[in-house]
Amino acid sequence: MSPDSLPEIDFDTIACQQILEADHSVFSIQWVVIPGGSPYTISSADLLERYLRYIQHCTVGIIRPVQTVAGIEFRLLASSLSLLQFLPPRCTTDAAGERTILNISGGLLVDKQECDRGQLELIVDETAAGTRLTLKLADYCPLLLGSRQPSLWRKWLYRFTQAYIHKVVTVNFLATVYRSLTGKSVRRGVVNIVVRKGAKT
Predict the structure, then answer these.
(1) pLDDT tens digits for 177-200?
(2) Which of 6, 17, 59, 142 is most deeply packed, by most CB within 10 A?
(3) Which of 189, 84, 188, 96 is nearest to 134 (CA)?
(4) What is d(CA 119, CA 140) in angstroms, rounded to the nearest whole number?
């Protein structure tokens, strides 16, 4: 999916969609547009650095991002237990913008049968309205769902725990970046957008 296919949104708004796709993998996307004329610029690598710092700050150190030779791990407190593991970030640039990609490689929150699937992308691209900052999680298979045919109670458990936390953290992160770059708050809140078809989560 190219960032160019994302629908336009108003300023002071964060767009969001979280669904389970047909194979019951998770697709989650959130973005905000920094108005044109902002004196600040930001790269996808900068966005990743800010995101990692924010994760540790907003969880009060319960989740501790650690960069290793093997990649990036979200560790639990001061332990070596990894909730999520990512391969080293890859940065790409094309006509659609630039992105930093982290492929999921394991962790306690990942279905062990699907450790080679899933990626987190941080995307920065230019639109007519300004600079769009996007966080996209795709093809992620959570341990909480159990399998590609999860029961209804597992879907509800995931929806009201991990999915809810991910949405809140990501939306608040984008609101924080927006405020730091523009000096203003996101006043219109979150709007639900349809990017892909699937079951809402």
Answers:
(1) 999 998 888 877 899 999 998 888
(2) 142
(3) 96
(4) 7
